[in-house]
Amino acid sequence: MVNHDGGTNNNLLSLYGIDASAKVKIQQIILDNHKTISWNKLYSQNHWIYRKKLAEEIHTLIWIATKQQKIKPVKTCSIVLEAYKTRTIDPDNICAKLYIDGLKESKIIIDDTPQYIYSVVTKSIKAKEDCLKIVIVEPI
Which of 26, 93, 138, 140 has its CA 20 to 30 A from that of 49? Predict the structure, then answer.
């Protein structure tokens, strides 16, 4: 979390694989009651139109959330996706691409290339309710 003086919580940054001495700005997008999309779900339907429709739904959800939660555009960043689930999934099964493309379409990030996104971390956490938290860590 960012302190009011611009400092950061070093333990939080190191959990996200970010240099703990870095000065960063952190923004969080919370998708309450959202069942995080897994790669298994994405590819369970062979027809491309199903995947396209699902991607469009996620992109719209991200666009609405960024507007409602007043998320500001960033130039470069690292992104952490924390999937809180009643039934956990493997962290490498979290389909981060759908959500990151939603951030790009919402103009929160410029592009999803390594020039603009330094790292993507996915975490799966057991919880009482499904929720997805997208953490955007921007160097300042």
Answer: 93
